[in-house]
Design goal:
Protein name: DUF72 domain-containing protein
Order of helices and strands: HEHEHEHHEHEHHEEEHEH
Strand order of the largest sheet: 3-2-1-9-8-7
Organism: Flagellimonas marinaquae
Strand content: 5-15%
Largest sheet: 6 strands, parallel
Number of strands: 9
InterPro entries: DUF72, UPF0759_sf
Length: about 300
Amino acid sequence: MKFGKVDNPENIDFTIPPDHPDTPVVLSKTKTGAEAKIYVGCAKWNRQDLKNFYPRGTKDELEYYSSQFNSIELNATFYRIFPAEQYEKWRDKTPEGFKFFPKMTNEVSHLRRMNDKALEATDRYLEVTSLLGEKLGTIFLQMHNNFGPKNWDRVVRFVEYWPKEFPLAIEFRHTDWFNDKNVANELYHLLEENNIANTLVDTAGRRDLMHMRFTKNEAFIRYVGANHKSDYPRLDDWIERLASWKSMGLENIHFFVHQNLELESPLLSAYFIEQLNTKMGFDLRVPRTTLSSEKGLFD
């Protein structure tokens, strides 16, 4: 994942900003008292990307991946809408409790840019994606960097068109969505009214995307490591913030680990899950890795 990559991550202030004032309000009014559900995963399961993660002789990468993690941020569905039988195969070969968090096709976000034809593409996408059944988590829509507030009417139409039975998170990348407080508040309120999650992105070169504003009781977080020793302290900070949100009533944590070079993503994920279990009382499986778990890996 190259988005937000910088040449000198040691020069970046990775401090997590304070919560948006409306975040505790959203959590307070949406908490149900249910036990928190947490899903942690990588973006891909390809052996080529996750080198040294798979034991020698592994025949089915997804089968093994899903034995170690409880979820995947499924980026492959951004590039194409797969045949129906592919979604059924993914569903059937993963264990009970596993969740897919698939990325919306780029036909909607980049090619059609939420226009009229994007709605038709949305229908085609959901027709097959729904075959994941109970293993379908939140669908993730990532808009193009140059999709700005001048497209507000398209956003309203799309959000109101979206079938509410499918949980959705949207990532807006154009800086003008957040530079103007009035524009940002309009966007937040639209998402909140339609029960759509506002994606948080932690990447080195785009700290403006750390707006820390919830629009529903769901933390959908895309963490992008920099292949640098700072990756671990950043994860420690996220543990502290998630614990704070949990105390306010957060019940859904969806945390996906990326890197500019994906090599260490399983290792970072394993470290993160260990810390979650220790400091927040969860009991998630810690993935096995064949790499050292030392924090000095990037020295």
